[in-house]
Design a protein that fits this description.
Strand order of the largest sheet of chain A: 2-4-5-6
Largest interface: A-B, 29 and 29 residues
Largest sheet of chain A: 4 strands, antiparallel
Mean pLDDT of chain A: 97
Oligomer: homotetramer
Strand content of chain A: 25-35%
Distance between the termini of chain A: 29 Å
Chain lengths: ~120, ~120, ~120, ~120
């Protein structure tokens, strides 16, 4: 089966890159929020999130940074916290037939919200 | 802050609808896969998934159908199963400034994969 | 197969009730943390969490209360938040062969932690 | 605050080990089921699950094995799958004041269920 022909002929190549990148952002957030994490485990968790999310269609690269300062400031009596939206900054590079989209997850204080937005996209 | 001006001026209205709908599909899948479910609880779970996902930006309507036949066929000795990608069919209607996108999650047997695709999108 | 004979003969009836209740608390927390929620959707989400978790072995009753005040205070520009450990109070009643355990998930400010503990357990 | 005095004086040391281990099994399952995984990423994911879950109270060691054969057999057209209960075998060592509990998550074909049970527990 030609998946692209059958399911995606109603959007452009640029839009396909956008579409797949957006799915990956929603997936990443809702899969990993809640995971126990602290300063000792954080690099391991970042690597694992990156590796898992790079498996998805069109996803060329995922970079995630978990805020070490927040980890320290919010840690409980038991020396870890649950990963939350305030702690993560993510950049997703999605490519379809040469068209690139760079998408971001970033907590915006003014909005009190982990915003997902488009940083750059090919014409 | 004008979020649209600041973060989304590099994509069209149609693309914004596509973008927000795609995020919601990734989010829905990775938030709820794994939830215990059986024939008695399935309607409740469908309603709750619908209600939760309709909170997200630009999401006008989410319809989800969990396959009752698969629930019955796969149920364990303990009379329930974990929700999986094979069981769900989802339709998301996303609208931004009048531009509509209808997106689908559907398990495609030939691909052995819960495909997310674009059913209809305004010009 | 007699599951109890084969897999659980090394613990008492009271311990089995404790064991199954504890599994359900860990499951509930890590399945639903991150779910979008606001004042309009909160009752629906509570019902759905209750119904899903009551499917698990030995679980007689799950009561969950999501804190409406925190929902209001922490809501984002987009009028909802991700469910977090600070917001939930849960009581799980687990029974095995007449032995009851009542278990609690409760955010304890002094610990900065959603503590899971034993409220009452039969001798 | 003395957490043990305040919240756990109604259970024995052996029961506390059992309790904390059971929470961790429920948490592990419902946090990570659904994660994208294939043969290339599986070791990374195993390490990350281990590291995250070993942060929880009383958890001395978590060993997880994701079944490579199932990964290969069930992979989609897109060369990965969502982690499911059929794929995992987990052993959790929980210790409280010298009392050890060894707990297992294992998919039991006859039950069609990822059973959580007690392998060994100190008197």
């Amino acid at each position: 089966m030609n998946v692209d022909e059958k399911y995606f002929k109603n959007i452009s190549n640029r839009e396909r890159a956008l579409f797949e990148g957006a799915i990956t952002m929603g997936a990443l957030f809702h899969q990993f929020i809640g995971t126990p994490v602290n300063l000792e485990s954080v690099s391991e968790l970042e690597r694992s999130i990156k590796t898992a999310m790079e498996l998805q269609p069109c996803i060329e690269r995922v970079d995630i940074e978990i805020d070490r300062r927040i980890l320290e400031e919010t840690k409980s009596e038991f020396n870890y916290v649950s990963l939350s939206g305030e702690m993560i900054k993510v950049e997703v590079l999605s490519i379809y037939k040469g068209k690139k989209a760079v998408l971001i997850i970033e907590y915006i204080k003014e909005l009190n919200y982990p915003l997902m937005y488009v940083k750059k996209i090919d014409e």
